[in-house]
Amino acid sequence: MAKEIIVVHGNNTLTGTVEVAGAKNSALKLIAASILAQGECVLHNVPVISDIEVMSEVLEVLGATVHRGGEGDEHTLYVDTANIDSYETPYELVSKMRASISVLGPLIGRFGNAYVAMPGGCQIGARKIDMHLRGLESLGVEFSIDHGYLRAEAKNGLHGAHVVLDFPSVGATENLLMASVVAEGTTVIANAAREPEIMDLADMLNAMGANVKDAGSSIITVEGVEVSSLHPCEHRTVGDRIEAGTFLAGGALTGGPLTVKGIKPDYLRMAIAKLREMGCVVDEAPDSITVKRTEPLNPVEIQTLPHPGFPTDLQAQFMLLASCAKGMSVITENVFENRFMFAAELARMGADILIEDHHALVRGGRKLQGAPVSSTDLRAGATLVLAGIVAEGETRVHKINHIDRGYEDYVGKLRSLGADVSREFPYKNYRTSVRLRSEE
Ligand code: UD1
User: Which phi and psi angles does 380 have, rounded to 5°?
Assistant: First the structure.
């Protein structure tokens, strides 16, 4: 059966207020962290997106029970890990979602063992896990490869260590945190990732009885506790800064004013600075951000970097803005080696982008035209829908399963801001005409 697509009618604007969901990249790791304590953790502000369903399945395969609250409470996830009796995460799930690898740290922490399918590369790059493994090895874990699976064993228990990461990897920092909270003695993670999602994870671990200090800085210190002393907790997921940045880009693109609620401006410092450089007026409140623009967009120079640098997850959205700016912009991707596939899709809509290695030269000022396009990843998909909103005519965005992975009710939220956008099945007319002919 044909898969749904998103159909957008352009020459439109986005105005009004939208509330962001809880952060996908945080909630996934909070669910994994709940493995560490026996019993039921209650997680609030968990987005209703398909990646969360996959992570819930990962935990269910381990023996946990996971369910959402009823009507009015859908954003609360109840994760009961009391009956986990397996430490194997199958290929079918890891290949669906790389973030499944974040069960490695907590499984080792709770059982001293893990058997997890090796994640492969993905469209945006090789995405290795060598730093996860080297870090965990220094805590006393031994790894072997077993027919595509990673076997991890901490035969003599986990012990604290001083780990220096080659690069402030989000995933490696998280796996190390979740194992080191129950390692004997002190662990120092230097060159740690500083993303708000790391702070969120540390807050939850501390609420479970762990002792993590200075999460959010480059040097995190963990004093290990007994795994039996960790207990389930209740925790609220931090707001999704990438969803917020996506809507702000939409406001900047069409003029706004557009307000996103449920997000601290401090988590989007660099994106806000770039919006201002591009000629937008950005107003900040403690829990919301408003963008508006009356003048044409200025060109910009952007380099993606680990937080607090410019997030790679907002690169596509700002490439779209650059395509509509007056002049030449330069965007440099430093985090993932192959994250410019989106440029080819935007070019189908009339953008003029030259890719040279990990730099994109974007010649702005083109009027975009609606076109059939495909999501190459979830951020690219969300951005193609935004592009359709300013383009002339109709845009049909395919492979929207990517968008569903990370954006809760994207179409509904855009409609509430005035967009003419809907989910449809393609070939509607084609199928009707085939049926009519066969009925004749
Ligand atoms: C997380 C986010 C992703 C975001 C990224 C960077 C989730 C589910 N995903 O991904 O949305 O774009 O952070 O902010 O939270 N690397 C290695 N070896 C390792 C680990 C990483 O070489 O052991 C490389 C990766 O290939 C990549 C870079 O380091 O080039 C960054 O990766 P990392 O920060 O770990 O990103 P993820 O945790 O995979």
Answer: -60, -40
